[in-house]
Amino acid sequence: MLTLDLTNTPRWHDLAPGVRVQLRPLTTALMVATRSDPAVEAVPEDASDEERAVAFAKALARRAVLAWEGIGDADGKPIDPSPQAIDALLDVWPIFEAFQLTYVSKGLLLEQEKNASALSPNGPSAGAIATAKPARKRAKTARRA
Description:
Elements: E1 11-16, E2 19-23, H1 28-35, H2 38-41, H3 49-64, E3 65-69, H4 83-90, H5 93-114
Helix pairs in contact: 1-3, 3-4
C-alpha cells in the first residue's frame, strides 16, 4: 500500500555521523524542475550514466536542501547552504551515496513499484507485446452429454 504524506513538510536526513540536511519532500514538481535544470540539460549526450547521475543529484540537491548541520568551511566554521557548497558536499563520495540512498532512491522505488505489472495488451494501458504464438487451428469444443 502506498502511504501518502499530505503534510508535505521538509524532513531531516542523516548523511554521515554529525552531518544532516533538511530536504524538501521529493515531489513530482521537484523532479520535473530538476530534469529541466540547465546543468542537467548541459550534460553531453555521450556522457556516461555516472556523469548524468552526478549532475542530476547536484541539481536536485540545490533545489531540495533547505538547511544543514555539521558542515563547515576549511577553518571549521559552520556555513550555510549555497549552490557551490551543495555541489562540494555531493563531491564527497559517502555523502553522495547517502543522499542517493536516503532521498533519491525512495522516489525511484515508487517508480519501480508502479512498473511491477506489465501493460495490458488492450484497453487504456495498451502497449504490452504478446509473447505467445497465435493458435494454428480453432479449438474443438467438448461434446454435450
